[in-house]
């Protein structure tokens, strides 16, 4: 049974070799170097093809490391694989892998892993093959590349089957089939069914094996699948199942059906030789000696010409069985010993076990020795197979751990990235919010400044209106005075002076001269009225200080309270903007409103202290801590805060209070 598996997997490798050539076959020659075309031409001598492939390699290796360069190097590797030059194949693949890593090309990297897996499978280093196939598997999983992932699972299943890990191989093949079933990759599906059939046969699940092989056979009706005599290969495998189940008649039927294809000996001579050997062995089992041992010898001749070393061993074992059945002990021992020696040389331990088992039958004198060696080797192989299976499991576990660590590192990287982005976004949001708030505040300040300007203008206009009203009253008063007093006096003086027209005596003259004093009094009165009008005009020109004075005087007139006001002439009121002027005016109103009805004098001072404007309100006759005045002081404090002024309210002796407010007056930027 080991022969069946080993030979089938050998066929599978041959198919894989051909498939690489198919995967990169070119539709035309115009766009590719002529060296690649010649290197892929089977009709040319082997050395010539190697030479052309080397020339193509020398051209591509000097080119820039880009995607096209790596694709061309894969073509070089494929041609080395097709020619069986596995060392150059590996060398080229290693170069591609390095280039892919340098360029962070995961597609080429993954394909290179798969190629290296093929190399190590051919080199019988299946643990290394399993490692690289597993790396390729992880990358194909990330990319959700179902077709290539299914192919990798088939390769993994093949490597596991070589090491008799049939349960692991079956699981991998089922994964491949599950992934590929919804694709158009019929050839890969065929391989998966075929492999599952072989594994089921090894596990003695003959019904399942026939089911899988029958499904594989049904796919060979598709020309895309039956390119390398897959139909004849499936018929051979179905025959092997019947042979394993001792249904030799059915086995012979399938072998003969496969051999009906006469082109098989040219197209697939290795499969033709295998079918001849299987047919002959089944005939031997039912003691049908027709064409025996000729079928064995024909198969042996083809295998030796093709150097199919594993096939040669099993054919000689079958010849040993044939001659043992014919009672030709010496010939049976001869072929048994040749099989034993040949299997030792090629280190095919499964074939070695079969050779020892056969020699134990045909050489009774040495049977004990052969049986002892068989048991020892079988135990050793089982232990080695167990180690290999454990190694496979460890490789997969470590690969999973590496993948997990990579995913974790990537997750942490993205986590840090998104945290940084979130922090930046939060910072940006805060900045935008603060900027918006600042702009809103600036806008509100602008609006409030405009309102303050309007309010100041309104107050000034109101003050000007009241002043004009007072001025009009004053004019009317002066007019009345002029009319009632001055005009009357002038009329009387004029009447008195008219006497001079009639009398010119000294007494009359002396009387008229006395009227000059009256004229001087009238002149003084007119001058006083004129000076009063001048003072009113000057007070109009004072503007804001006059407004403050007007407010204080107006308030003092309402209550029985004497308010003394002092305004330092050194204060340049033009350095205050409208908002500060309005704020100062409003705070003064608040302070005056807080006075209430008090029987005490109050002093209000405005003076300059360096770059500060100071407003003091002293001798307020109430306690600042009293509850009934608490709300008033809150309004004063709030107004000072809005202006950026420093406000201090303190109690002095006799329950009196002093309010002192200072603010910068140098520039408008201070508010």
TrEMBL record:
<protein>
    <submittedName>
        <fullName>Tetratricopeptide repeat protein</fullName>
    </submittedName>
</protein>
<dbReference type="InterPro" id="IPR019734">
    <property type="entry name" value="TPR_rpt"/>
</dbReference>
<keyword id="KW-0812">Transmembrane</keyword>
<dbReference type="Pfam" id="PF13424">
    <property type="entry name" value="TPR_12"/>
</dbReference>
<dbReference type="InterPro" id="IPR011990">
    <property type="entry name" value="TPR-like_helical_dom_sf"/>
</dbReference>
<keyword id="KW-0472">Membrane</keyword>
<keyword id="KW-1133">Transmembrane helix</keyword>
<keyword id="KW-0802">TPR repeat</keyword>
<feature type="transmembrane region" description="Helical">
    <location>
        <begin position="414"/>
        <end position="433"/>
    </location>
</feature>
<feature type="repeat" description="TPR">
    <location>
        <begin position="190"/>
        <end position="223"/>
    </location>
</feature>
């Amino acid at each position: 049974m080991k022969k069946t598996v080993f030979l089938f997997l050998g066929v599978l490798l041959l198919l894989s070799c051909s498939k690489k050539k198919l995967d990169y076959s070119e539709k035309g020659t115009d766009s590719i170097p002529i060296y690649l075309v010649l290197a892929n031409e089977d009709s040319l001598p082997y050395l010539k093809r190697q030479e052309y492939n080397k020339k193509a390699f020398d051209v591509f290796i000097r080119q820039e490391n880009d995607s096209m360069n790596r694709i061309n190097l894969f073509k070089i590797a494929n041609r080395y694989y097709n020619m069986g030059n596995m060392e150059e194949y590996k060398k080229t693949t290693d170069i591609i892998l390095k280039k892919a890593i340098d360029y962070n090309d995961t597609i080429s990297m993954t394909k290179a892993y798969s190629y290296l897996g093929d190399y190590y499978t051919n080199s019988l280093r299946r643990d290394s093959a399993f490692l690289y196939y597993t790396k390729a598997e992880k990358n194909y999983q990330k990319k959700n590349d179902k077709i290539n992932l299914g192919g990798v699972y088939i390769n993994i299943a093949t490597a596991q089957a070589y090491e008799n890990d049939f349960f692991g191989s079956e699981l991998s093949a089922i994964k491949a089939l599950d992934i590929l079933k919804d694709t158009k990759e019929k050839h890969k599906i065929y391989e998966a069914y075929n492999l599952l059939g072989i594994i089921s046969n090894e596990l003695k699940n003959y019904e399942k094996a026939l089911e899988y092989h029958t499904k594989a056979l049904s796919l060979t009706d598709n020309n895309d699948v039956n390119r390398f005599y897959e139909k004849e290969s499936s018929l051979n495998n179905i025959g092997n199942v019947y042979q394993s189940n001792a249904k030799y008649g059915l086995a012979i039927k399938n072998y003969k059906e496969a051999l009906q294809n006469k082109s098989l000996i040219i197209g697939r001579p290795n499969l033709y030789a295998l079918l001849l050997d299987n047919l002959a062995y089944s005939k031997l089992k039912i003691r049908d000696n027709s064409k025996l041992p000729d079928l064995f010898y024909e198969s042996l001749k083809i295998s030796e010409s093709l150097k199919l070393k594993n096939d040669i061993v099993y054919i000689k074992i079958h010849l040993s069985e044939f001659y043992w059945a014919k009672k030709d002990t010496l010939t049976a021992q001869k072929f048994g010993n040749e099989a034993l020696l040949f299997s030792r040389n090629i280190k095919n331990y499964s074939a070695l076990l079969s050779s020892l088992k056969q020699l134990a039958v045909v050489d009774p004198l040495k049977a004990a020795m052969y049986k002892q060696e068989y048991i020892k080797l079988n135990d050793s192989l089982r232990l080695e197979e167990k180690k290999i299976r454990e190694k496979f499991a460890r490789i997969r576990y470590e690969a999973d751990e590496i993948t997990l660590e990579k995913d974790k590192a990537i997750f942490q990287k993205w986590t840090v990235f998104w945290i940084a982005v979130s922090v930046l976004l939060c910072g940006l949001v805060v900045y935008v919010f603060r900027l918006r708030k600042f702009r809103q505040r600036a806008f509100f300040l602008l609006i409030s400044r405009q309102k303050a300007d309007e309010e100041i203008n309104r107050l000034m206009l109101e003050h000007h209106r009241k002043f004009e009203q007072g001025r009009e009253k004053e004019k009317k008063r002066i007019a009345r005075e002029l009319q009632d007093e001055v005009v009357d006096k002038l009329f009387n003086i004029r009447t008195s002076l008219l006497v001079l027209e009639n009398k010119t005596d000294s007494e009359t003259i002396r009387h008229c001269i006395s009227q000059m004093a009256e004229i001087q009094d009238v002149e003084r009165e007119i001058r006083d009225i004129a000076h009063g009008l001048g003072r009113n005009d000057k007070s109009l020109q004072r503007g804001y200080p006059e407004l403050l004075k007007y407010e204080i005087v107006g308030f003092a007139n309402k209550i029985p309270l004497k308010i003394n006001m002092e305004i330092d002439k050194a204060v340049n009121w033009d350095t205050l903007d409208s908002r500060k002027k309005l704020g100062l005016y409003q705070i003064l109103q608040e302070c005056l409103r807080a006075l209430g009805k008090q029987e005490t004098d109050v002093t209000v001072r405005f003076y300059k202290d360096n770059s500060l404007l100071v407003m003091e309100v002293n001798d307020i006759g109430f306690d600042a801590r009293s509850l009934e005045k608490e709300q008033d002081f809150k309004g004063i404090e709030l107004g000072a805060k809005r202006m950026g002024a420093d406000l201090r309210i303190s109690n002095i002796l006799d329950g009196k209070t002093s309010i002192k407010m200072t603010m910068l007056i140098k520039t408008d930027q201070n508010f």
